[in-house]
Amino acid sequence: MAWRLGLRIEHPGTCAERMRAVVVPREFTVGVSLVLWAFGSWLIPLLVALGVWRHVRCRVPLRWE
């Protein structure tokens, strides 16, 4: 009935509120991705260095037992 009279009914799920809800998770996702990328970039050289240390310094063989 309201649409026949040309009335516009606003409710809590308006387009602006839905757009705001989409922006927050995207920023969170970008932030988490950046932190995980930085951690992974730091972790890979550390793991390689620990592997070299284990096999060269501690003389652990490179074969399965």
Low-confidence stretches: none
Note the beta-strand portion.
under 5%
Helix content: over 70%
Largest sheet: none
Taken in chain order, the helices and strands follow as HH
How would you describe the shape? rod-shaped
**Structural class by secondary-structure content:** mainly alpha
Average residue pLDDT: 78
Number of strand elements: 0
**What's the Cα radius of gyration?**
28 Å
Distinct helical segment count: 2
What gap, in angstroms, lies between the N and C termini?
79 Å
Layout of secondary structure:
Layout: H1 2-5, H2 15-57
Summarize the structure.
This protein is mainly α. The mean pLDDT is 78.
3D structure, described in words:
- The chain is mainly α and 65 residues long.
- The protein is 72% helix and 0% strand.
- It contains two helices and no strands.
- The mean pLDDT is 78.
List keywords for this structure.
about 60 residues, 2 helices
